[in-house]
Amino acid sequence: MPIVFSTLNHPLRVPLAAEIHSRPPVRLEAPEVITHLAVHGRNEPLDAGDKLGLQSALLADFCARFGVPAPAGNAKYFFHDFGRFRLKWECHTEFASFTVASAATAPLASPEPFGRMPTAELPEDWLLSLQGRLIVATHIVLDRASAAAEDMAPQMRQLFDTNAIVGCGASQAAQVWTDFRIHADGFARFVVLDAGLKSLQAGRLVQRLLEIETYRMMALLGLPNAQQSISVLNAIESELAALTATMVANGETSTDEEEGIAKEKALLEQITALAARLEQLAVDNSYRFSASQAYFKLVHSRIDELRERRIEGVPTIAEFMQRRLTPAMNTCASTARRQEVLGERLANTNSLLRTRVGIRQEQQNNKILQSMNTRAAQQLRLQQAVEGLSVVAISYYLAGLVSYAGKALKAGGLNINTDLATGIAVPVLALIVWLGVNRLRKRFK
User: Fold this and answer.
1) What pLDDT digit, counting tens, does each position of 126-157 carry?
2) How far is CA 260 from the centre of its chain?
3) pTM of this prediction?
């Protein structure tokens, strides 16, 4: 039973299956000339009401100049044969590439092999619209090999006008030559010599070389961030060391508790400010450093796919990248690691200082509690003294009442000695009052 009906398929089945076929190489057959442009920038809308992103708008503008329908705004790949040249457009996360190829007639036989490139077919005003966005511009000459690689080395040195050329045998049937420099015309240059490449091999080989050059430049975007961050990290480390030394000195010097807490709170505010600066730096650099490492891995992956063969006296692409690109990537990696380590040190110092402030505050609170306990004891003793006076006062008033009562009875004709009765009543009343006060205190307890 065929399963072509959309109701049977997962919504993402067809797009995911097509993804691995979405960027095929251009079919190339020597001799040809290729120009590759990489435009930096995310494919984000140019304004709120625009459905086309930056990269899609550039492609649409290019196609409109030749009367060719542009792909939809969410397209990631486009290929079209314009007659005089063929264009392949790819949209990536941070850049889009324009690869233009056209047939040539024995370009290496010309005195200026890079003099007639496909850039002549591109609209000049469209090229000017790329101002400030071009991150890679590369020319590639694809021709037939006329001699062995070792014999081609002198000609290549003369062509690139330098002894510092890089070359290798690639794909078991090709030669690759370059110097990884930007020449007077603003383009980097590659020469690929076909020594028996099979169908589509030339296109795949050229695509790998262009990806190596593009990913190399994208990986190096992290290096300026690392170089600028080094001075900031040095300043933060110096300030942290000074604050740590001050914290140790404050801990060794016996000072008043309130004064010590005030000093340590001031140190805590300074450390918090340092942590905020470091966090801002990490936010600014984290994506760039991660992207650089990802591009660096892609460069190594594409170099491995070349299956390089050494040419005597000439460094290979892998050796060149190992000497020139790897140190820059190590700088980015070490800067990222240094940010992490410094962040951990700041966090530890912050935690230690907060602990010390907390301990000092607890000690201060303990002293306050001790003082309160002392005051409570004093109040208790004062209260007990007041209670004793209260017993005397109440007994005195009750004795007075007994005296008045006795005098009243005596005046009524009862023969009583009021003074004797009052004297006898005083200790009895005092005992009764004292027992009553004690009982009342026990009830409150």
Assistant:
1) 999 998 899 999 999 999 998 898 989 999 99
2) 36
3) 0.79
From edge to edge, which strands make up the β-sheet containing 188-194?
77-81, 86-91, 95-103, 32-40, 134-144, 188-194, 174-178, 166-170
* Cross-strand partners of 97: 38, 90
Say how far apart CA 328 and CA 262 lie, in whole Å: 45
Please list, in sequence order, all residues whose beta carbon lies within 8 angstroms of the beta carbon of residue 198, skipping any fewer than 6 positions away: 173
**Residue 160 · residue 177 · CB < 8 Å:** yes
Distance, CA of 87 to CA of 330 (rounded, Å)? 36
Return d(Cα 175, Cα 30) in angstroms, integer: 13
Give counts: helices (H), strands (E), the chain: 9, 8
The answer to whether 52 and 60 are in contact (CB under 8 A) is yes
Q: How far apart are CA 411 and CA 404, in angstroms?
A: 10
Counting every residue, how long is the chain? 445
Under DSSP, the state recorded for 96 is E
CB 213 within 8 Å of CB 303: no
33-55 burial string, b = 16+ CB within 10 Å, else e? bbbbbbbbbebeeeeeeeebbbb
- Compute the distance between CA of residue 61 and CA of residue 64 in angstroms, rounded to an integer: 5
